[in-house]
């Protein structure tokens, strides 16, 4: 399979593109100033920035290319537009706030814990270069918990991606934490998304958890 990778020279792309090639995928790297040649490309992967990702998704869908997106920061209006466009194209638009499988499990555990300890807050910590705050992972965690926890965002050099969910009760505290120390942790999730992408319906699907059920 030929994969167009938007952001191939970014921090995530430099880690993931060699791994995808080792797994047998042909990777076409696309970065600032590069144009997409859709010939032969079946799937795109996007790890860019919130200000350009919508354009990349629109161009890909209009060329009949399925989308796997790890960039966050979409507005509700953007997601609605892209969902409609993906359905019209008959292709999946798979938005994954976090490709680390441990982070997906953290969200699942937090949702279960919130049923019993509804008082909770989320602390998410990322590198200072991350532009959106709160992170997509924190927003997705809050959504599945259903308790509207307050989210605290930290942006500092030296961090990669870290999140704590703190759930308090009388006389007790439950902490669920996931740490990503290297971006290579995203590779198994990306490979899973590529393997299972054709099982998803046309339109928007959010979260790697959709493939882990």
Taken from the alpha-carbon principal axes, the silhouette is: globular
DSSP strand tally: 10
C-alpha Rg (nearest Å): 17 Å
Q: What portion of the residues fall into strands of 2 or more residues?
A: 25-35%
How far apart are the termini? 25 Å
Residue share in helices?
25-40%
Number of helices: 7
| Overall structural domain count | 2
Task: Give the tags.
6-stranded parallel beta sheet; alpha/beta; Dihydrodipicolinate Reductase, domain 2; 27% strand; 2 domains; Rossmann fold; 213 residues; 4-stranded mixed beta sheet
Care to give the gist of this entry?
The protein is of the alpha/beta class and 213 residues long. It has helices spanning 11-22, 53-62, 76-89, 101-114, 136-145, 187-196, 209-212, and strands at residues 2-6, 26-30, 43-46, 66-69, 92-95, 119-126, 150-155, 161-169, 172-180, 203-206. The chain is built from seven helices and ten strands.
What's the SSE blueprint?
Blueprint: E1 2-6, H1 11-22, E2 26-30, E3 43-46, H2 53-62, E4 66-69, H3 76-89, E5 92-95, H4 101-114, E6 119-126, H5 136-145, E7 150-155, E8 161-169, E9 172-180, H6 187-196, E10 203-206, H7 209-212
Parallel strand pairs: 1-2, 1-3, 3-4, 4-5, 5-10, 6-7
Antiparallel strand pairs: 6-8, 8-9
Helix pairs in contact: 2-3, 4-5
Structure explained in plain terms:
There is one protein chain. With 213 residues, the protein is an alpha/beta fold. The protein has two domains: 2-95 and 185-212, Rossmann fold; 101-181, Dihydrodipicolinate Reductase, domain 2. It is built from seven helices and ten strands. It has helices at residues 11-22, 53-62, 76-89, 101-114, 136-145, 187-196, 209-212, and strands at 2-6, 26-30, 43-46, 66-69, 92-95, 119-126, 150-155, 161-169, 172-180, 203-206. The strands form two sheets. A six-stranded parallel β-sheet has the order 2-1-3-4-5-10, sandwiched between helices. A four-stranded mixed β-sheet has the order 7-6-8-9, covered by helices on one side. Helix 1 (11-22) links the parallel strand 1 and strand 2 (26-30). Helix 2 packs parallel to helix 3. The two termini are 25 Å apart. 41% of the residues are buried.
